[in-house]
Design goal:
Layout lengths: L1 H31 L5 H23 L1
Helix pairs in contact: 1-2
């Protein structure tokens, strides 16, 4: 069960990181603060999923 939470958390972190880098390269830091854009919502959701699943991984370890 721990490995499932760990894999989900790492995939979510990777997704958030890739979206973050692409947003910085395309729009700069100012584009990251525009919460009405769809990639920012995806990035925020992926990072929230990372936090929840990594916390579950740590608590179950």
């Amino acid at each position: 069960m721990n490995m499932i939470f760990f894999m989900i958390s790492m995939l979510a972190f990777g997704t958030a990181f890739v979206i973050f880098i692409s947003m910085v390269l395309n729009d700069g830091v100012k584009g990251l603060l525009d919460l009405s854009r769809k990639p920012v919502k995806w990035m925020s959701g992926a990072f929230a999923l990372y936090l929840v699943t990594f916390a579950a991984f740590i608590l179950l370890s």
